[in-house]
């Protein structure tokens, strides 16, 4: 009304809408009638924090509202879309129940979803008991049966944790029987996990508890296969032969010599940009906590250490450099998976003090590598242009090709895209150390490779990472970019790579050749 009369601006309207969508709980109290609504209320609150996180900073100050109402409206729109047919259904059921009374189902009760797993365990236990009674002589059945069942549950725990199970002096027939039942349960457990994941991926209605259990099961299955991969590497590796390693190393040496690259030194004690790089590293670490309300013990500790480093940068820097120089044994790294339902993303939990050291090292390496032009112009995305400009340059590069649009004789242009599979998993740490020593100080190279050679832990599962790099380290992006450059050189060959990069005194721009 006020808007149509012209006494209020459109900005006020949009700001009011944004406020309404973000404060539905306070304004209406709807959650009292359907508590599931709290999900939408919390989501809108998170969106509000996310939108205002950068809005009220800098010269804007604590000014007018942002008026960005579309994301909050979207949340409630989807809610109404989903809840309307449900409400219709429930209302219909209520009315029919009022007029006709309840209809008792004339069917036998099946095992409910909640009890499927315990039901299977009871069936398994009964089958084991039956086998024991068949096996044992009359006098010693009862007291032995309980011990055998305890061994069975211990064997199952060992299978889940991927620990070898062996009880000395156990009779062979009983051991074989236990192993047979563990294998049967393992097959059922694995098949159920894959079946439920397929349902989740398809978008079927799946209980929240089933989703949580499924995530835990897939994590265990992934770690079992990862432990086997690491074990095979220690048994059969290294997979890169000496000749291949020498060829890779020599190619990289020739390339760096041709580009006149001077290696990145260890950060000196009185380094000019020390404090700036540390502040950037701390800001990046702190950014992940900007919209979080509830923190666990480790996260609280990390935030405390970040604040401490802000207050005493010189003390933090001297500690960081001491660790880079001397620390080669590290605390275990926790792993969990974030479930996006179509796929899982590994999330690594690194000890907070080590994380700050890694974050500083990452900032230092990228800054120095950029200054020394380690990465040639074809490596994208890069800091020299925002993505839209990169798209423009890409189109321009294609357009500038000689007679590219000439199709008189039925020619066509082909863009070929290929993908390296499992680059992270297949990086050999010994070779990586040698390659890193070509571009950084040997202390930094040793620190980076030692940091990847740590114990990885999930609940009762542990293994040491000896093959491949850990994605969750702060400087993993730098290692990947550098290793990607080495792979590029092997694919292109030094001559073609040098043509694309141009002379070191005056390097070519992206998609330009002199």
Q: How would you describe this protein?
A:
Residues 6-240 form the PROCN domain. One of its GO terms (molecular function) is pre-mRNA intronic binding. There is one protein chain. The chain starts with 9 loop residues before the first helix and ends in a 13-residue tail after the last helix. 60% of the residues lie in helices and 4% in strands. It folds into 3 domains: 10-93, no CATH class; 124-231, no CATH class; 241-401 and 415-501, no CATH class. The protein has 18 helices and 4 strands. The protein is globular. By secondary structure, it is mainly alpha-helical.
Main attributes of the structure:
514 residues; mainly alpha; four-stranded mixed sheet; 4 strands
Task: Give a quick rundown of the structure.
With 514 residues, the chain is mainly α. It has three domains: 10-93, no CATH class; 124-231, no CATH class; 241-401 and 415-501, no CATH class. The protein has 18 helices and four strands.
């Amino acid at each position: 009304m006020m808007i149509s009369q012209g006494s209020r601006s459109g900005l006020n309207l949009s700001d009011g809408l944004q406020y309404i969508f973000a404060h539905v709980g306070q304004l209406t109290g709807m959650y009292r009638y359907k508590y599931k609504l709290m999900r939408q209320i919390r989501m809108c609150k998170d969106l509000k924090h996310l939108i205002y996180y950068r809005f009220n900073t800098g010269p804007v100050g604590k000014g007018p509202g942002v008026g960005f109402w579309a994301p909050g409206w979207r949340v409630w729109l989807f809610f109404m879309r989903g809840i309307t047919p449900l409400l219709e259904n429930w209302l219909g059921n209520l009315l029919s129940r009022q007029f006709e009374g309840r209809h008792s189902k004339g069917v036998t009760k099946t095992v409910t979803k909640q009890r499927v797993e315990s039901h299977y365990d009871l069936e398994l236990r009964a089958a084991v008991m039956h086998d024991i009674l068949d096996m044992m002589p009359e006098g010693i059945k009862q007291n032995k049966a309980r011990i055998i069942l305890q061994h069975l549950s211990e064997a199952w725990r060992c299978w889940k944790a991927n620990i070898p199970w062996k009880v000395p002096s156990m009779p062979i027939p009983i051991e074989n029987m236990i192993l047979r039942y563990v294998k049967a349960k393992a097959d059922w457990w694995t098949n159920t996990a894959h079946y439920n994941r397929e349902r989740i991926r398809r978008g079927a209605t799946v209980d929240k508890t089933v989703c949580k259990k499924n995530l835990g099961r897939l994590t265990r299955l992934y770690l079992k296969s990862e432990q086997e991969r690491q074990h095979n590497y220690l048994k059969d590796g290294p997979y890169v032969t000496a000749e291949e390693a020498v060829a890779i190393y020599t190619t990289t040496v020739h390339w760096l010599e041709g580009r006149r690259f001077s290696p990145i030194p260890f950060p000196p004690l009185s380094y000019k940009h020390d404090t700036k790089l540390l502040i950037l590293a701390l800001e990046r670490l702190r950014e992940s906590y900007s919209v979080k309300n509830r923190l666990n013990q480790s996260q609280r500790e990390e935030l405390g250490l970040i604040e401490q480093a802000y207050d005493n940068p010189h003390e933090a820097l001297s500690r960081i450099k001491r660790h880079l120089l001397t620390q080669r044994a590290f605390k275990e790294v926790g792993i969990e998976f974030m479930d996006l339902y179509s796929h899982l993303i590994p999330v690594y939990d690194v000890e907070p003090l080590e994380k700050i050291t890694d974050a500083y090292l990452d900032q230092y390496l990228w800054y120095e590598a950029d200054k020394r032009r380690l990465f040639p112009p074809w490596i994208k995305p890069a800091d020299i242009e925002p993505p839209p400009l990169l798209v423009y340059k890409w189109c321009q590069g294609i357009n500038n090709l000689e007679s590219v649009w000439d199709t008189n004789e039925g020619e066509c242009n082909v863009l070929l895209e290929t993908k390296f599979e499992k680059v992270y998993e297949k990086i050999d740490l010994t070779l990586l150390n040698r390659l890193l020593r070509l571009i950084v100080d040997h202390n930094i190279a040793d620190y980076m490779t030692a940091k990847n050679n740590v114990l990885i832990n999930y609940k009762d599962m542990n293994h040491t990472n000896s093959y491949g790099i850990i994605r969750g380290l702060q400087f993993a992006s730098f290692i990947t970019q550098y290793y990607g450059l080495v792979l590029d050189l092997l694919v292109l060959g030094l001559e073609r790579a040098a043509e694309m990069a141009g002379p070191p005194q005056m390097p070519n721009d992206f998609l330009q050749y002199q």
